[in-house]
Amino acid sequence: PSSNLVEITPGVIQQIGVETTPVELTTVFRHIRTIGEVEVGEDELAVVNLRFSGWVERIQVDKTGDEVRAGQILFEIYSPELVSAQEEFLLAIRTQGADSALARSSRRKLELWNLSSRDIDRIADSGASTRTMPIRAPQSGFVLHKDLVEGARVAAGQDLYRIGNLQRIWVTAEVYEHDAPWVEVGQPAQLEMTHLAGQIVEGQVSYIYPTLNTASRTLTVRLEFDN
Predict the structure, then answer these.
(1) Is the pTM of this model over 0.90?
(2) Which end of the chain is more exposed for a tag (fewer CB within 10 A), N or C?
């Protein structure tokens, strides 16, 4: 036998309290605690602006925090450009028919200005242009920002509303460098609010930012939770 081999009798093993167990493949895990900032997910935001200029005539959703439905009228606007485009559309229908190339082209112009199909159909069915046109919510959610008042002139491209769907929220958290290898996308995450101690919300890691903060030596992680 090898001189490096040590043999211990069963009696000695029992006296010194040695215990053995078969080797198993198992999961090694670590609980990581950190703080985060709650925010609206970027993929759940919609901005309302115009592709033409005009004057705000009547606001129907006038408060930050109001809940809106997709297609709901936010406000009505008077725009000489829009009235002129409606007249062109109606003239094409009267002279060449609703299925003519000119009528389709005129309708396409209104569609490119983000007018809804229902409002364009209403113009065609009535045979008359409207002085004001309703501007509708592009998605359901809550008004997070509003920047218009009745009578104000608004320019093309000006952001007037910001609407967020709050069914899911993001939490941006910082993880220290030595804990970063333990974090992966898809891992479960738990959220506890400071003002609701003991109430746990279940979510998951949805994104890990690719760069390390050189000043704090932390990695930014995005978590997602049902609201």
Answers:
(1) no
(2) N
Q: By three-state DSSP, how is residue 208 classified?
A: strand
H helix or E strand, kind and range, residue 111: helix 101-112
Kindly report the length of the chain.
227
Label the pairing between strands 54-59 and 218-226: unpaired
pLDDT digits (tens, 9 = 90+) for 45-68: 999 999 999 999 999 999 999 999
Q: CA 180, CA 212: separation in Å to the nearest integer?
A: 10
DSSP E strand stretches across 34-96: 36-40, 45-48, 54-59, 67-68, 73-78
Q: How far apart are CA 64 and CA 55, in angstroms?
A: 21
